[in-house]
Request: fold
Amino acid sequence: MVDQRMAEQAATPTGSLFLCWQSACVVARRNRGGYSVVELEAERVIPAEPGQFMMVRMEGGPVLPRALSVLRVEGKRVQFFVKDEGLLRARLAGAVPGTSFELRGPYGVPYRRAVDPTRRYLLVGGGSGIAPLHFFWRRHPELVDATAFGLRTRDAAEVLPDTTFVVEELGQGTASARAQALWKPDNGVIACGPREMLLQLARELPSRDAVYMALEERMGCGHGTCQGCVVITRKGTLRLCKDGPLVPLEALPW
Ligand SMILES: Cc1cc2nc3c(=O)[nH]c(=O)nc-3n(C[C@H](O)[C@H](O)[C@H](O)COP(=O)(O)OP(=O)(O)OC[C@H]3O[C@@H](n4cnc5c(N)ncnc54)[C@H](O)[C@@H]3O)c2cc1C
Reply:
C-alpha cells in the first residue's frame, strides 16, 4: 500500500522522481587507483541533499538496481564516487560518454536532518564511503570541524583533486586512527565506509554522544517498500533506505 509520505511526494512536482525511472547519460568520468568519479546527465533536475542516494541500474538490465550515494549534484547533473568492482559499478567506471543508465530517487534522510544541528562534526570516511561526506562537507562547511578521509593508495587519492586524504601507502595510517587524533569532546562524528572501519571507530571513540554511522545493506526498492534493508537496532527495526542510512551509534548493538 502506498504510504502517506509516498502519496505526499507523488503529489509534488518532483514526486515522479520518487517512483519513476529516468534515463541518464554518462558525460564524464575520472578513474584513479581503483576508484572512479562518474558524472551523468539526467532528464530532470535531481534535488538531492548530502547523505541521500540514488537507485541506479543498467538500462534494460536484468538485475536489481544498486544504491549509490550522491557525491555532487548540479541541476540535472549528478556525480557518483564508486569503487571499480562489482557488476554495476565496474560498468559505470568503464562507461564511455553517452552510455545510458537509469536513475530513481533521491532517497534517504539527508544527513543534516539526521544529526544534532547544534554540533559541529568530524567526518570520517573510508573508500567510496567518502562520497556522501564530501558532499556534506562542501554543502555545509559551517557544520564541519574536520575531515579524516582515508584511501589505501596514492593513485586513488588523485581521484578527488580538491581533497586531502589519509593515504595508507604513504605511511599516514588509517582514517579511523586519524579520527582519534582529531576528535574533540564537544563535536559529533559522522562516519561512512567499510563495516570494519565503522566497528573500529565505535570501539575506539572516547564517546558515543552525537556519533552517527552510515550503514549499507542491499536495497531492492530504495523507498521503504520491499523491506530488503531492514536492520535491527536497540530501538527496534528500521528500514535503512527510508529511516537511514545514518543511524546513531547509541541505537546500534555494537
Ligand atoms: C545507501 C548506500 C549508498 C551507497 N553508496 C555507494 C557509493 O557511493 N559508492 C559505491 O561504490 N558503493 C556504494 N554503495 C554500495 C553499493 O550499493 C553495493 O556495493 C552494490 O552491491 C554495488 O553494486 P555492483 O553491481 O557494483 O556490485 P555487486 O555485483 O553487487 O557486488 C558487490 C560486491 O560483492 C562482490 N561480489 C559479487 N559477486 C560475488 C561473488 N560471487 N563472490 C564473491 N564476491 C562477489 C563484488 O566484487 C563487490 O565487491 C552504497 C550502498 C548503500 C546501501
In short: The chain has a mean pLDDT of 93. The radius of gyration is 18 Å. The pocket of flavin-adenine dinucleotide is lined by residues 53, 66-69, 80-83, 85-89, 128, 131, 216-217, 219, 245 (CB under 6 Å). The first strand starts at residue 22 and ends at 32.
